[in-house]
Amino acid sequence: MARAFITGITGQDGSYLCEFLLSKGYEVHGLVHRPDYLPSSNIAHLYQDPKIHNRTLFLHNGAFEDATHLRRIIMRAKPDEFYHLAGQSSPRLSLELPETTVDSIGMGTLRLLEIVRDIPEPPRFLYASSSEVFGSPSHSPQDELTPLNPTTPYGAAKALSQQMARIYRIAYGLQTCSVILYNHESPRRSASFVTMKVARAVARIKKGLQSELVLGSLTGQRDWGWAPDYVKGMWMILQATPVDDFVLATGELHKVSELVEIAFAHVGLNHEDYVRHDASLVTTVEPVSPCGNPAKAKRLLGWENTTPFPRIVARLIDSELKKLN
Do 69 and 194 sit in the same domain of this protein? Predict the structure, then answer.
């Protein structure tokens, strides 16, 4: 039975990856920072299943600040594959908390890479990077050879981690790599992301529980995909020999205004009757057309995003309506 270790296992990507690997017959180990949140987390259904928890799924309490404890956990788990998905996840928040962001993302990754380097049979290691490493690129779409040019502490910390994974691959011969993820959504997405803010507001407005949706810029554009597809892509990357860095994206840009129009239309409402602009919500450093080129992943892995943008939006809203019902 193959063993995998996941950091950030309770997050959107970590929970889908956990389910995917369990379905593949893996023994899965996960690092949990706040065990008291498990009963309400994205893996609650797995944690509460006695046929899974402590049989094929093992959860370990720990924090990135305690490298000694991390080392003990990972040495005992002896994973064949390591998926590092955890860390501060908000570019906007990183502008307010740059030191915390860089320590959580950059130093956290470095500590893990040092632990992996000391394991007698080191696992294949995948780091979940972000399109934020490109910041405001000179060309679009971006690919694996696009120069890194982050414009936020979050992007800079992600770039540091991505570069360190590459360095450990070259300098120490480890199977370490990064996946450069563009926006990918699901009902498990945090409420801080614009897709979920729109989906939840539209559902509440439809149910008469909310009167308006307040947003910053409607002209911003994103490359939005379906999270479960991207999680499968992570696994495919670690099955390749040798491991390498890949961009996972749809290659298509959609404006926030398009997201809003599709969302309201899905519930039979006119968005112009409910949307209000608030200039204070506009981010000071806004990425310019972050659109990824997934050609390498398609060519070498056979990977692609399977869910069109309108269907993603519909799924988010249907999920929110179901919760309200």
Answer: no
